[in-house]
Amino acid sequence: MRGAMRDHTDIHPLFHGAPDSTEFRKLRKRIVRQTREAIELYGMARKGDRWLVCLSGGKDSYTLLAVLHELQWRGLLPVDILACNLDQGQPGFPATILPDFLERMGVAHRIEYRDTYSIVMDKVPEGRTLCALCSRLRRGNLYRIAREEGCAAVVLGHHRDDILETFFMNLFHGGRLAAMPPKLVNEDGDLFVLRPLAHVAEADCDRFARDMRYPIIPCDLCGSQDGLQRQQVKQILDTWERNSPGRRQIMFRALMTVQPSQLLDPALFDFGSLEIS
Question: Once rounded to an integer, what is the mean pLDDT over residues 220-248?
Answer without folding.
Answer: 80
